[in-house]
């Protein structure tokens, strides 16, 4: 994923590690059980950060429609919004 690109999928990591960065530098590392790409899908904005593999990575790519369907319930939407808000606090330029 590259910062500024259109968000069309979410990626759930099953093995390995990725690094997430923006124009200012490293934001976080993500590994097994974590995912990337939700901000662009939930906010309908371009990608707010770039993601690169730090090791061999395996996972599941979930298309936008499927991802959004999974998080449309009230509890799921609230949890997803809390996650997005927390990540955006790390990246003020993305607001």
Molecular structure report:
With 95 residues, this protein is of the alpha+beta class. The chain has a single domain, classed as Jelly Rolls (Sandwich). 32% of the residues lie in helices and 34% in strands. It contains 3 helices and 6 strands; from the N terminus they run E-E-E-E-H-E-E-H-H. The strands form 2 sheets. It has a 3-stranded antiparallel sheet. It has a 3-stranded antiparallel sheet with strand order 3-2-5, with no helix packed on it. 22% of the residues are buried. The model has no long low-confidence stretch (mean pLDDT 90).
SSE order and pairing:
Layout: E1 9-15, E2 17-22, E3 25-31, E4 35-36, H1 38-43, E5 50-53, E6 58-63, H2 64-70, H3 74-90
Antiparallel strand pairs: 1-4, 1-6, 2-3, 2-5
Task: Please give the number of β-strands.
Answer: 6
The level of helicity is 25-40%
* Helix and strand composition category: alpha+beta
What kind of oligomer do you see? single chain
Low-confidence stretches: none
Q: Trace the largest sheet across and list its strands.
A: 4-1-6
Q: How many helices does DSSP assign?
A: 3
For the report, how would you describe the main beta sheet? 3 strands, antiparallel
What is the typical, i.e. mean, pLDDT? 90
Strand content: 25-35%
The CATH topology = Jelly Rolls
Question: Radius of gyration, Cα only, in angstroms?
Answer: 13 Å
Q: Report the CATH C-level class.
A: Mainly Beta
């Amino acid at each position: 994923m590259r910062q500024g690109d259109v968000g069309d999928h979410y990626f759930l990591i099953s093995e390995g590690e990725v690094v997430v960065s923006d124009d200012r530098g490293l934001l976080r590392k993500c590994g097994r059980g974590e995912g990337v790409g939700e901000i662009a899908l939930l906010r309908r904005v371009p990608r707010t950060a770039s993601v690169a593999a730090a090791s061999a990575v395996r996972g599941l790519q979930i298309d936008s429609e499927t991802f959004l369907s999974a998080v449309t319930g009230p509890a799921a939407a609230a949890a997803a919004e809390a996650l997005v808000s927390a990540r955006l606090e790390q990246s003020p330029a993305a607001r």
